[in-house]
Design brief:
Helices cover 37% and strands 16% of the residues. By secondary structure, it is an alpha/beta fold. Helix 1 runs parallel beside helix 5 and helix 9 runs parallel beside helix 13.
């Protein structure tokens, strides 16, 4: 009972009272002219499909003389600061875990000190928790996208729409996330981008040339993990038919899965590089023959580095992230559960299949075709 009361008081204090006090304190000070705060609080994969437009925005006539700041998810911190600090004037970091933590108060205080003239929430699928954060940031102009209802319901969206002075409208037809970001940034700047897909310059990295097939076992959720036993069967088939070496990568906490994957596989044909940082992973993938991964950020890293990738996916939000559109470079080869293509809906719906429904043989055939075509047989 005491714990419940404490949490209610904490909610009132952190989510209601302190934001109101900060709004009052920072209401009168003038906004900093030509200062733009971009809000992109999603995961690493979302950031990878967005970051090219930071350069487009920086070069635009409308914002070329602005100081540009970015509020992004803590998960994107390493890759954003390493690759994009040359065009971003300052970073602020957010996590959903801040909900009832003093970290949220500290963040709100720092954002109020920034006093941006313009704030832009760049998501087509806005999240109410982020809308509420933006509500408590004093900016002269607040811009958002009049998007869909994937991440918030109609009542929340209707309420949050009032927090913004301008709502950008774009074509509501289904679009890949990279193309959707282009629509939003073109509407924001009034200029046209010719970008076809996300690109990561290898010259910005220290590429580790390994000429291996990399298997990435990590995933943001258990629902996106392909069984380790399936990876084991796949590796056994690949090394029995092809003269390749396989390297298994993933988080430190995935060591047990790595052991299952390597069971019965000769050590000279399969090795492990778990616990890599995100930049180290980029550098390692950049020197590989191919990546095999679940539907994770690693897939978008490989695509941005022009490394062929087999994406094992159960079909969530088909077309929004996977597969890439036809006009984008064809380096991503998705493998869905058997029968899935007869049940495709659109990019707003989640699949009823599981990752375990994806056939080992289908993944093997896709990988073998790519490797054979590139001379690995």
């Amino acid at each position: 009972m005491i714990g419940i009361i404490f949490n209610k008081l904490k909610f009132i204090l952190i989510r209601k009272l302190i934001p109101a006090v900060l709004n009052g304190l920072f209401f009168l000070p003038a906004r900093r002219k030509d200062t733009l705060l971009l809000v992109k609080c999603d995961g690493i994969g979302d950031y990878l499909l967005f970051r090219d437009y930071l350069y487009f925005l920086r070069a635009s006539e409308k914002y070329k003389d602005h100081q540009i700041y970015l509020l992004a998810n803590t998960g994107s911190k390493e890759i954003a600061t390493y690759l994009d600090s040359k065009i971003i004037d300052g970073f602020y970091w957010y996590s959903d875990s801040f909900f009832l933590k003093w970290d949220l108060v500290k963040l709100m205080f720092r954002l109020q000190l920034l006093r941006p003239e313009t704030l832009v929430y760049t998501n087509y699928s806005r999240r109410y928790i982020v809308d509420e954060l933006i509500r408590n940031i004093n900016a002269k102009h607040k811009i958002a996208v009049d998007g869909d209802l994937i991440n918030e319901n109609a009542v929340q969206k209707q309420k949050a729409d009032k927090y913004y002075s301008v709502l950008i409208s774009v074509n509501p037809a289904p679009a890949h996330e990279f193309d959707r970001n282009r629509q939003i940034m073109e509407a924001l700047t009034g200029e046209t981008s010719m970008a076809a897909s996300a690109i990561m310059n290898k010259s910005d990295l220290q590429i580790v040339q390994n000429d291996s097939v990399i298997i990435f076992t990590g995933a943001g959720s258990i629902e996106k993990k392909w069984p380790a036993s399936n990876f084991n069967k796949l590796c056994a088939q690949l090394i029995s038919d092809l003269t390749i070496k396989i390297v298994v990568t993933g988080g430190i906490d995935e060591a047990a899965e790595a052991a299952v994957i390597g069971e019965g596989i000769p050590a000279e044909r399969l090795s492990f590089r778990t616990g890599l940082s995100i930049i180290q992973l980029c550098e390692f993938i950049g020197g590989a023959k191919m990546l095999i991964s679940g539907d994770t950020a690693a897939v978008h890293i490989a695509a941005a580095l022009s490394v062929p990738v087999i994406c094992i996916a159960k079909g969530d939000l088909y077309g929004r992230f996977i597969p890439y559109p036809q006009h984008a470079p064809g380096v991503i080869h998705p493998v869905f559960p058997e029968g899935y293509k007869e049940d495709i809906r659109n990019y707003t719906q989640f699949s009823n299949y599981t990752m375990a429904d994806v056939s080992v043989n289908d993944v093997y055939k896709a990988a073998r075709e790519i490797l054979t075509r590139s001379g690995n047989n």
